[in-house]
Amino acid sequence: MMEEILHMEVPGDPDYIGIVKMAAGSAASIKGFTIDKVEDIRMAVGEACKTITCHNFMEWSAAYRVSMDMDDETMVIKVEDSKEGHQIDKDLSRRPCLDCPKEGDLGVHIIKTVTDDMEVIKSGDGLRCIRMVFNK
């Protein structure tokens, strides 16, 4: 049975992506995933956070939500838009991806490569959720 191990709302500022990656990697490590799989999880989560909060938008998201559910063999991570919209980042030099709208598809490809299952769910109001499944 899946157990929710984490649910948080994260500021859209890219400086917080590292915190989400560390949380996902730590949870996977505690549950016995291999070092290689932990690194895949960290990479996929980072790309999902960037894709949800920035890619295909000309501004950063105000915030987004991350949830992690696990059982003995599987970890499911969801990264989804919040309804707070996207705010303009005045200091574009801080962006990790200066050409966000064109780079988003690469992030999704990377996620697909390292996950056991992945889907991008779009709601009618334009919000998106990236759901990733990792098996031991």
Describe the structure.
The structure is a single chain. The chain is α+β, with helices and mostly antiparallel strands and 136 residues long. Helices cover 35% and strands 32% of the residues. The protein has helices at 17-30, 35-53, 100-114, and strands at residues 3-11, 60-61, 63-70, 74-81, 86-87, 117-122, 128-135. Helix 2 runs antiparallel to helix 3. The protein starts with a strand and ends with a strand. The relative contact order is 0.22.
Q: How are the secondary structure elements laid out?
A:
Blueprint: E1 3-11, H1 17-30, H2 35-53, E2 60-61, E3 63-70, E4 74-81, E5 86-87, H3 100-114, E6 117-122, E7 128-135
Antiparallel strand pairs: 1-3, 2-5, 3-4, 4-7, 6-7
Helix pairs in contact: 1-2, 2-3
Name its key features.
two-stranded antiparallel sheet; alpha+beta; 5-stranded antiparallel beta sheet
What's a concise summary of this model?
The protein has about 140 residues and is of the alpha+beta class. Helix content is about 35%, strand content about 30%. The relative contact order is 0.22.
CA(first)-CA(last) distance: 15 Å
Mean pLDDT: 85
Strand order of the largest sheet: 1-3-4-7-6
> Beta-strand level of the residues, as a percent range?
25-35%
The low-pLDDT segments are none
Cα shape: globular
Tally the helices: what do you get? 3
**What is the number of beta strands?**
7
- Radius of gyration using CA atoms only: 14 Å
Main beta sheet: strand number and arrangement?
A: 5 strands, antiparallel
SSE string: EHHEEEEHEE
Question: Level of helix content?
Answer: 25-40%
Structural class of the helices, strands and pairings? alpha+beta
